[in-house]
């Protein structure tokens, strides 16, 4: 048996390649950051060509560190930042514009117009398309981003209608460059507002309403199957999975049964719960999304609570305020005080995501007094992640009727012990971290390995999951509820900041 499986994780701030062995253990990693481009307030872009170059670099780096070649890989899987939108020239392979990142809010006015276009009744407003695609109208999703490029870059719409300009999320962009095929998987397609959740195909009603030509769209495929053979450093290696990053983490945490869920702490935070083979429509501000699809098996759906800003808030404190020189220093700074001093930080930099979906919100620091110092602010920064997660957990419980008993966690911020303890405290439930916290890459590797027989079935993947650490609640319920009430007050003060004549 070939010894290893590789996974490419094309994330919001960096690209990584991780190589795993048969036990699901990490044996090699390489990583490279890419530029964050901010042309205007609320706009966030990436250079897709830079990202492709970086992906090739990290693949070569990960193989070189392990002293192996492509011949030692059974397959490679891909996981990616999901809604980030790339349009490229089919003939040249060159992007027609910078990629519009999922955090970007430039489509705010377009989204409002789309919500107002349906007259009266339940079908109008933010939920106009929710029954078809499971998503509220929001700047977050790819469909309106495509429409913005078609409307604002000269000549692109006509060429897209002719099939000469192609759309993809980052999985499609990488698979195109690796194999020459124009495909995406069901999880990424479910984040566009253009795919019908029942048929798992592009929907004519949605395409017509949002204004996106079918000719530019990739073929929708399962999350786990061989799409083709790789090129360059991955020459001859089967490219055998694609999953949006949060669905990949669900898969990597082996949440294969209905009711099992996880929270990933990255640039943003994303809590997903497996709901089985039938989509569950949320009444409490959550997203209905595809969890994964293995080959010819039925698709598995999930409910998702998406939080826009968590880890990126720590980066903002580092880069924009200069309170720390590295992200890891936030914990030590927060430990210089015993509590937040009455200070709450709501990081609505891209509006509020779940469960509010308010693109008119902007961030605030509330409760400031002369007593507050940088330690209190650092603590409020960490606590913001935990409180936002609590709001999503409450919405999950309201939709499912089941209270959370344990939260599986993963991602870079889980290394922060103070945050994890506070998370358990505000949830009133244990928080559990696995031995391999990089479950996004692990999920992509697992799905690729299943496609080529490297692992025989999902039960063999369950056997790999092991607990690394657990945090149990210590905060009295009355104290928890008092702080939560203050947090909710602060959230209300972020709303309706933008006026009708504001952009972004």
Could you describe the 3D structure shown?
This protein is an alpha/beta fold and 504 residues long. The protein contains 16 helices and 21 strands. It has helices at 48-66, 108-117, 130-133, 142-152, 156-161, 170-179, 186-189, 204-210, 245-252, 311-321, 329-334, 374-400, 417-427, 439-452, 458-462, 477-492; strands at residues 4-10, 14-20, 26-33, 45-46, 73-80, 86-89, 99-100, 165-168, 183-185, 219-221, 224-229, 238-244, 261-265, 269-276, 287-292, 300-307, 344-346, 364-366, 407-410, 431-434, 467-471. The protein has a 7-stranded mixed β-sheet. The protein has a 6-stranded mixed β-sheet with strand order 3-2-1-5-12-11, with helices on both faces. Strands 4-7 form a two-stranded antiparallel ribbon. The longest helix is centred in the C-terminal third of the chain and has 27 residues, at 374-400. It is globular and about 60 Å long. The termini are far apart.
Estimated share of beta-strand residues: 15-25%
What percentage of residues falls in helices of 4 or more residues?
25-40%
Shape: globular
Strand order of the largest sheet: 15-16-14-13-19-20-21
* Assembly context of the chains: single chain
The radius of gyration over CA amounts to 22 Å
* Parts with pLDDT < 50 across at least 5 consecutive residues: 118-123
Averaged pLDDT: 92
Number of helices: 16
Largest sheet: 7 strands, mixed
Number of strands: 21
Distance between the termini: 52 Å
Structural class: alpha/beta
Keyword list:
single chain; 504 residues; alpha/beta; 7-stranded mixed sheet; 21 strands; 34% helix; globular
């Amino acid at each position: 048996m070939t010894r290893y499986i590789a996974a490419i994780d094309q994330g919001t701030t960096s690209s990584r390649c991780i190589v795993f062995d048969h036990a699901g253990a990490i044996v090699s990693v390489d990583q490279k950051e890419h530029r964050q481009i901010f042309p205007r307030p609320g706009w966030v872009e990436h250079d897709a060509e830079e990202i492709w170059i970086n992906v090739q670099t990290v693949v070569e780096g990960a193989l070189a560190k392990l002293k192996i070649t492509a011949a030692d890989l059974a397959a490679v899987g891909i996981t990616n930042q999901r809604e980030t939108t790339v349009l490229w020239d089919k003939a040249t392979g060159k992007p027609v514009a910078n990629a519009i990142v999922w955090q970007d809010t430039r489509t705010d006015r377009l989204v409002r117009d789309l919500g107002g276009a349906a007259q009266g009744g339940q079908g109008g407003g933010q939920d106009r398309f929710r029954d078809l695609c499971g998503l509220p109208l929001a700047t977050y999703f790819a469909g309106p981003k495509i429409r913005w490029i078609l409307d604002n870059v000269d000549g692109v719409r006509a060429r897209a209608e002719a099939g000469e300009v192609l759309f993809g999320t980052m999985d499609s962009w990488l698979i195109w460059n690796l194999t020459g095929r124009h495909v995406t998987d069901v999880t990424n397609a479910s984040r566009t507002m253009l795919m019908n959740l029942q048929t798992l195909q592009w929907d004519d009603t949605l395409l017509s309403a949002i204004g996106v030509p079918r000719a530019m769209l990739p073929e929708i495929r399962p999350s786990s199957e061989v799409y083709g053979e790789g090129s360059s450093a991955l020459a001859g290696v089967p490219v055998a999975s694609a999953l949006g990053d949060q669905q990949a983490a669900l898969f990597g945490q082996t949440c294969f049964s209905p009711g099992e869920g996880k929270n990933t702490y990255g640039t943003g935070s994303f809590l997903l719960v497996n709901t089985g083979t039938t989509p569950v429509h949320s009444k409490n501000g959550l997203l209905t999304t595809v969890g994964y699809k293995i080959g010819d098996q039925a698709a598995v759906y999930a409910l998702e609570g998406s939080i826009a800003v968590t880890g990126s808030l720590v980066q903002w404190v580092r880069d924009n305020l200069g309170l720390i020189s590295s992200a890891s220093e936030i914990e030590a700074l927060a430990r210089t005080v015993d509590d937040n001093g009455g200070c709450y930080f709501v990081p609505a930099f891209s509006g509020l995501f779940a469960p509010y979906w308010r693109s008119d919100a902007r961030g605030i620091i509330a409760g400031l007094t002369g007593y507050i110092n940088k330690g209190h602010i650092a603590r409020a920064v960490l606590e913001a992640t935990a409180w936002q997660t609590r709001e999503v957990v409450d919405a999950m419980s309201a939709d499912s009727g089941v209270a959370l008993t344990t939260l599986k966690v993963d991602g870079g911020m889980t290394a922060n012990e103070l945050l994890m303890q506070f998370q358990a405290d505000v949830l009133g439930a244990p928080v559990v971290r696995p031995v391999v916290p990089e479950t996004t890459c692990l999920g992509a590797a697992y799905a690729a390995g299943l496609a080529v027989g490297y692992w025989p079935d999902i039960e063999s993947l369950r056997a790999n999951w092991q607990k690394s650490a657990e945090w149990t609640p210590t905060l009295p319920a009355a104290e928890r509820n008092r702080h939560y009430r203050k947090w909710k007050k602060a959230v209300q003060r972020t709303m309706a900041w933008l006026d009708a004549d504001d952009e972004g």
